[in-house]
Each structure stands twice: as structure tokens, then as C-alpha cells.
Amino acid sequence: MDAFYASVEQRDAPELRGRPVAVGYAAARGVVAAASYEARTFGVRSALPSVTALRRCPELVFVAPRFDVYKAVSQQIHAIFADYTELIQPLSLDEAYLDVTANRRGIATAWATAKEIRARILAETGLTASAGVSYNKFLAKLASDQRKPNGQFAVTPEMGAAWVETLPVKRFHGVGPVTAAKMKRLGIETGADLRAKSLDFLRMHFGSSAEWYHAIARGEDDRPVNPSRERKSSGSETTFDRDLTEPVEIEAGVLRMADEVWDWCDKAQAFGRTVTVKVKFADFRQITRSKSFAGVVRTQDLLRTASRELIGLVLPPEKGIRLVGVTVSNFADAGEAGEALPLFGTGETA
Fold it and tell me: How far apart are CA 207 and CA 137, in angstroms?
């Protein structure tokens, strides 16, 4: 979908159409959840601090998110997808992979299928979508961004490998900003640069990701569209209105996040063995502390206890804390309960 959250807000409030819109809150510690295309021309993007967004675009209009509405619209869109294939792998509320090989509706080409789906989405929701059509997921994902908004692009088997060589590696799925910066230091800025590196070179510098980078530089991706892809974690985080230094306030924030995560786990009846607490300091340095159980965390009290113990490892803080989060991962059978927790892990990023 094109600027999904913001487009829903502009659809439902005609006075917002044509104006730069950000979904989120204009509070001092707020963050942009989504931005309309009008806002993007000013450099406003998702995850941008609200104060920075307003500095870039003083005319920016903030709209509080309505996730219940976005979810309902997403369900409408997925109902359209289901008329064309059973093989639908959601990535988020506004994005999915579809495998239309079986050609349920007897449409001549995948290109025509994508065009019809986009037309139906517009007719039934009033929103525009863009599509990427290709012979594997990696290329389809890249292609879906090529003609945004409200367009589509196809990458054929004949052009796939050569097309990838022309692209900057920072556009590749699986190459985030940190990895892209590392690749640039190694002289890798385009798909052609990446393809020129040997597998041994990539293993030396990128470890277990080397095979993936080696394959995508050649336009290769054998992953199937998996409609039953299991969720691997559940997490929640919050940014405080001010940097916190008092342990009791920080712990209270962590426990609120643990309770939110537990609500999801309990409703979904999905339970994990690993609890992770995330902390972001005032200087944006980020750390994590994790604890793994022998069995799943099956009670709210146990999740709260583990979260409290983990945040206790960094209290009192060396400097103010702006954000905390809690995640449960390593899902397993709920019957495997665990109380003894011998394993700890740590992580840190700038």
C-alpha cells in the first residue's frame, strides 16, 4: 500500500488531502509512524522524531494513529488477495507476498493479475497500492518500490541479474543502514560491486549473511511464499516524555511494557522462552539484556519478574533513559513451562 496509515487518514478526512500529514504525535518525544507523500517531499519519514519532522515541515499536520481502522482496511485488502491465491504471506498490515502461479482466476499474466488486484483495492477501499512482479520474493520486493506511488514494475528472468547490478545495495532487503555503511567502506555500493566479491570475502566480513548477499547479488532467492509463517516474537516499547534516571520510574515503564506483551501472548496463546529488555539512552545508544528459560514463560508474574531482573542489570543508569521495551521470543509449546533461567545475553548498538 502507498503511505498506508497516512493515506487512510487523508481518505477519511478530505481536509487533509493534498497536505503534508504525519501519523503520530507532535509531543516533544513523539515519533512519526507514517508520512504522506506530500510530507515526504520535505524529508519527513517514519521513525523520525516529531520535533525534527516539524522543523523540516512547519506545515506538517499530525494525526493520532487509529490502528483498529488500519487493521480493518488491511482485512479488506487481504480478502481481495484471497480471490486470487491461497499463497499469501503478510509482511505487515500494508504489505504481502502473493504467489499466483496456480492462477485461480485464469488471468493471462502475473502483470495483469497485479493490475486487477490494484484496481479492486482502489475501488473497494479508495486507496492506492503499488506492485512488484517477478520470479522470486527478493526481486518482487525491490520492484514494488520502483514505481511508487500507484504503479507497478516487473522484473523478468531475462533482466533480473543485470537489473540488480544497477541498484544501490542500500535498497536490498536485509541490508540495513549499518550494513550499507560497512559495505561502502569495503567498496561495495552497487549490486555490481557486491557481485564482484567472492563468497570467501563476504564470509570474512559478513559471517552467516554471506550466502544471502552472494545470492541476491545475482538475483537469486529460493524462499517460497509461506502463508503459515509463524510469528517469532512479541514486543512492546515506549519513549518517555523526558529522560528518566530514577530506577523506580524506569522499572515501572518496563513493567507496563511487560504487561502489554503479556496481553498479546495470553490472547494469542503464544508463549516464548526468551525475555529481552531493550534500553535506549539519552545519547541514543541502545542495549539489550536477555534471559532464556528452560521452558516457556507461561504466567504474567514470571514475565514481570524476568523483566524486572533484566532492567535491574542496568540500574541505576549511567545516563538518562529515553526508551524501554520488552520482547518475548523463542516461541514453543505452552505445555513446556520453565522456572529456572540460567542463560543471559547482552547486546549493544550505537
Answer: 23
